[in-house]
Sequence to fold (872 residues):
Amino acid sequence: MSIEIKSPTFPESVADGTVANWVKKEGESVQQDEVIAEIETDKVVLEVVAPVNGTISKIVKQEGEIVNSSELIAEFNEGKIEDVNEVESNESPAESKIDESKPKKLGPAAKRIIAEEAIDPSTVKSTGKDGRVTKADLVNHLNKKPTEDLNKIKNTLVDTNIAFSESRDEKRVPMSRLRATIANRLLTVKQETAMLTTFNEVDMLPIKELRAKYGAEFEKQHGVKLGFMGFFVIAAIQALKKFPLVNASIDQTDIVYHGYQDIGVAVSTERGLVVPVIRDADMMSLPDIEKSILDYSVKARDGKLSMDEMQGGTFTISNGGVFGSLLSTPILNAPQTAILGMHSIQDRPVAKDNEVVIRPMMYLAMSYDHRLLDGKEAVTFLVSIKEQLESPERLLLNL
Amino acid sequence: MYDVVIIGGGPAGYVSAIRCAQLGLSVACIESMSDQEGNQRFGGTCLNVGCIPSKALLDSSQRFYEANNELSKHGIDTGKVNLDISAMMKRKDKVVDQLVGGIGGLFKANKVTPIQGHGKLLSNKKVEVANGNSTEIIEAKNIILATGSKPIEINSAKFNDTNIVNSTGALEFSAVPEKLGIIGAGVIGLELGSVWARLGSEVTMLEAMPDFLPMLDKKIGKEVFKEFTKQGLKIKLGCKVTKATSSKANVNVEYDEDGTSKDEVFDKLIVCVGRAPNTENLLSDDSGVDIDDKGFIKVDDYCMTSIPGVWAVGDVVRGPMLAHKGSEEGVMVAERIAGKHTAVNYDLVPSVIYTHPEVAWVGKNEEELKAEGVEYKSGSFPFSASGRALATDESVGSVKVLADKVTDTILGIHIFGPSAAELVQQGLIAMEFGSSSEDIGLTMFSHPTVSEALHEAALAANNHAIHIGNRKR
Fold:
């Protein structure tokens, strides 16, 4: 029985997607719920799974093609999964085609190169027996790509007579959809808001001491490590409650105040930056917040974040400190009004009670939309966060 | 009418017949060779007078040589060891008979029809079979010519079946000749020379070519020459035999060495200057099958002759005269007749000289790569650095691996040393899968084995052999 395989139903905010990868090939047997294709959208990679056991009879949308919500992407035949051995022992004169679609076992050198260079072997032209990718294929694949493009570039440069050395390779590849989306959104924010950044610094000693003192017990009790992020989220929520305008957003000529605090936490993944949202964070305890951050970072790493988990948000926290950033000016996550940037903690001499002491210091940066927030509010908001972190008891006392 | 009729039951023909039968084709195999009682003998040169009997004698003679010369080194004192040449020959004949009989059994099991007699191809895919006085015409949809080859005879030294013999006669001496002359220091000459030298002959080899085994990798060839000379083979290069005069007692051989006429007296003279394709009385004038100027049947890459449906395989067509090459061609043709798309990979035909130690190689040698302008890297490992080779007192020779400088794909493997034939086969399997030297380097080898030398040579190609110093680059 033939079944139509359609792309998933996209949320309203997603216009279309691209077929990123056919995990299974045409004619290949698949089991129910096996992933057969991956569709990349602006926000996430969606998996398409086989509805029943059977074979893909025809691929309608090839890799790289744009698909709309619930659009036909392949035709599928329901049926028993063929026993490969049975087919191979059939001595018909026609050569068995079964083997061609199965991934071939690779030699050890090919495996090493694929792992080291992060190559998708299905993109490599193979010359080995039964379509196997050999080391030579991979070496040629790695050597060829830039030179092919290089020749193109060279040809366009003939007129301008620019000397072109082989060692200055250039390579032109299309942006992934996620990257293109990020690029678009960031540029729009820069162009359409009056963005300004205010800085402060925070002495992290009290939080560090707290973590040192209760970290082990916390982990034992809650099954999750006591990190820094949870404190920042709680400090931000309390500050947002004090300064509702920071939690608001502009919709044309209206100001929309949100009666809840949904905190986005920026997570870096291989595919790009994603911002899962801790929903109703104001209702959550610190352990719950830590748990949900951990949960999101695992999902983000595996590309398993759902569309829902990345929608909305009223305020965002971005931590450039994990990469060692000392100071930066984060860009707003539209239509939010402010974003808090955390940075790396550095032991620095600071003046305390007329003495120079060495303290673990972190610069804080908050970018905000000046259209909505005045400097006074923005600065006081950031100072409030600073004060709560320097005296964690304030977190408890809602001060 | 048969689906397939095969003329010749040697390693190309009989293997092809079995494969045809497996594929459901009706097949007959014509063979003219028979024993004294008139029983048909399949197996061709390889089984009857080539590969197998020579290996039987090579092994027997090596045992005799070791008992006489090497066991004492291991602390085993045997006293004087006696040679019973007729028992040695009987063992050889028994091995041959067993294998020949085996083919009869395989034919029966696969329902291949054996036809005794001499086959001749007529036009329109008909074959005339002559057996004694009777002739018979059989028809087939496909005909495979697999008639093999025979030793070349030279005018200056005609075979006489007593003291000037070909390779077949050299396997049947009833006594060890005191002085043995061999014309031709090729693969066959070296193997036969080794047999009789180990049994006590003083062996002199006269080779017309100025180079020793020119198809070998040069460095390996030098090692081989040195070792064989040490083993007592007197190999004289650039010596053209002008006349061999046989008398009852011996053979006087006159030859030209660097413009100087010389002569030498031998008890026996073996002539092994090469082999020629067997097409005598094979093709009728109107068969339509083309033959080239050297007498080989002309075929394409898939062994089809100028007449569709008529095929030719083995020694009777281009390419090296090797049993395994013929067998693979036989299989290929059977499968193509059955509609499959099989092809023989002529780039990877292994060659072996079954001396002691063996010489074996596959793919390109350094000289060929240089001539083709291929940039390559080379890794060598001597058996003198192999623990297993030293332990078994087999430490002569080395392994050489040649690989593409850029892609690292293995281009050639050249081995002189213990079990060289088996070692080359390991590398050949890797090459058939497009392996790089790194692939072999990343593969685990049992310790201690002589195979480790192949592993180390592959590592050496990438400058990280473990058990020998690497070249500075």
Observations:
- Chain A has three domains: 2-101, 103-173, 178-397.
- Chain A touches chain B through 20 residues (CB under 8 Å).
